[in-house]
Amino acid sequence: MKILELGFLAFGPFTEKQLDFSSGHEGLHIVYGSNEAGKTSALRGLGQMLYGIPHICSDNFIHPHSKIRIRGLVRRDDGTLLEFIRRKGRLNTLRAADDATVIEESHLRSFLSGVDEGFFKTMFGIDHASLVQGGEEIIRGGGDIGQILFAGGSGISDLRKIQNELRAEAENLFKPSAQKPKINKAISDFKENRKAIREAELSVQEWDQHDKALRHALEEKKSVDAELEKKLSDARRLERIRDALPVMARRKELLNDLEVCADAVMLDDDFSKKRRKAFTTLEIVKNEEKQAIHNLEDIRQLIGNLEVPDTLIEKADFIEDMYQNLGSIRKAAKDRLRLVGEKITRESDAKDILRGLRGDMTLDHADQIRLEKAESFRIQELGSVYERLKTREENTREEIARLSLIKEQIKAKLSKMAAPFDTDELRSVMEKARQHGDLEAHYQNQRLEIRKAEADANAGLKKLRLWTGTLESLENLPVPSPETIERYEQGLREAEDAVKKQQADMDELEHALLENKGRIEQLRLEQEVPTEADLYQAREKREQSWQFIRKADFPLPNDVAETYESEVQQADTIADRLRREADKVVKKAGLLAERETLKNKFMRSKKQAEKAGEAFNGLKKEWLDIWEPLGISPKSPREMRAWVQKQMNLATQVSAIREQHIKAENLKTQIDTFRRELINCLEKLDEFTAGEEETLTHLLEKSRQIAERMDKLRASRDKFSSELEQRDVELRERQTRAENINEELSRWRSQWAGAVETLGLDADATPGQANAVTDDLKTLFVKLKEANHYRLRIEGIDRDAAEFDEKVMQFAEHDAPDLLKLPTDQIVTELNARLTRARAAKTQWQNLEKQRQKEEKQLRTAKNKIAKIHGELTAMCEEAGCESYESLPAAEEHSARRKEIQVRLEEMENELRKLSAGATLDQFIQDARSVDPDSIDPHTDQLREEADILGQKKSEIDQTIGKEQNEISRMNGSARAAELAEESQSILAALETDVEQYVRFRLASTVLNQAIERYREKSQGPILTRSNELFTHMTLGSFEGLRLDFNEKGDAALVGVRPGGREIVSVDGMSDGTADQLYLAVRIASLEAYLEKNEAMPFIVDDILIKFDDERAIATLEVLARLSEKTQIIFFTHHRHLLELAEKCADDGVLFTHSLSNGGSL
Question: Which CATH superfamily is domain 1-113+1098-1162 in?
Answer without folding.
Answer: P-loop containing nucleotide triphosphate hydrolases (3.40.50.300)
